[in-house]
Amino acid sequence: MGKGGNNNNNHDGSEQNMAAWLVAINTLKIQPFNLPPLGPHDVKVRMKAVGICGSDVHYLKTLRCADFIVKEPMVIGHECAGVIEEIGSEVKHLVPGDRVALEPGISCWRCTQCKKGRYNLCPEMKFFATPPVHGSLANQVVHPADLCFKLPDNVSLEEGAMCEPLSVGVHACRRAEIGPETNVLVMGAGPIGLVTMLAARAFGAPRIVIVDVEDSRLSVAKELGADEIIKVSTNIQDVDGEVGLIQKAMGGGVDVSFDCAGFNKTMTTALTATRPGGKVCLVGMGHHEMTVPLTPAAAREVDVVGIFRYKNTWPLCLEFLRSGKIDVKPLITHRFGFSQKEVEEAFETSARGGNAIKVMFNL
Cα(335)–Cα(342) distance, rounded to whole angstroms? Predict the structure, then answer.
């Protein structure tokens, strides 16, 4: 949890706070989790909806995600929403009973990146379920009030939890400057590819083509509003032929490509398919290093931008959900309660993939 905590037992007779602890590879256990003291600018939130992210599964399977390594037991989970139970003495904009979505990263607000407004790049970031910081798959958490965003009346707690993955797509669209004149290619129809597609449409993209290796994911993308879907292979020798199919399906130039997978082949396809003067936004991080045709892309002045998490996205995400510009409900395919058996089953379901898009805990 961003504000800290431990797994010692309570001794004051208060309700035992329980959390899902990652204790070893492929081993999650529901155990006690003591909350830190409530600071003047903090709130205590009873978790109601927590989603499983691909990074959570990576940690479960390998105890690491990219350069972050789990070295001691850690509470998992970071896509979350809940109900305010208690507020700190200086909190003015929230009251107990408010339903809120939680932004999971606590930045320092003192470093150069924070002062420039790019707090997502803060080197001191404390982010739910990113070692050594504990996560939010718990009965209760303590979190800074300014990172808790009140839900509109017509937005559910599950939708509130979906603000976290949706924020990745929103931040990507901002970085790529998506608008009503931007034709978009999305590489990968997994959860992040789908929210990026939804965000691009909400930003005004008139035509969106999405590609994937799985028919089931492409079917979901089509149902969610993709203009064209294309099944591709994993063979990099097929890139040129597939680029031709993409450009034909687009019916014009590809202005922006989002690589939501992050593999040699997907990035090669994105760079090759994008028109001269266009943009490629690398969203997924499948490979730590890639070999891609950067020189030909540079000769066509194709800009390459990256993203890391998000910044200042929750208000816009909630407005998209409130207004109906984005509907994330179809992405939630599986729901589980918060018992030892159900936690294990939920992570197994998420890890298997297949028809599972977003697996959600209802606490």
Answer: 9
What residues are paired with 86 via a beta bridge? 44
Residue with tokens 């998209």, as numbered in its chain? 320
- Per DSSP (E only), the strands in the chain are 18-24, 27-32, 42-51, 64-65, 68-69, 74-75, 79-87, 99-102, 105-106, 126-127, 140-144, 148-150, 184-187, 208-212, 228-231, 254-259, 274-282, 303-306, 332-336, 358-362
Is the pTM here over 0.90, yes or no? yes
Written as six digits, the tokens of 307 are 């993203």
DSSP string of 199-228, one letter each residue:
HHHHTT-S-EEEEES-HHHHHHHHHTT-SE
Residue 309 and residue 121 in contact, taking contact as beta carbons nearer than 8 Å: no
Contacts of 201 (CB under 8 A, 6+ apart): 208, 225, 326
Return the ∠ at Cα 56 (arms to 319 and 132), rounded to 5°: 100
Strand partners, 127: 105
For residue 17, give the DSSP letter: P
d(CA 221, CA 198): 9
For residues 86-95, give the mean pLDDT. 98
Residue with tokens 């510009």: 325
pLDDT at 8 over 90: no
Report the chain's C-alpha Rg in angstroms: 21
Cα separation, 10 vs 35, in Å, equals: 9
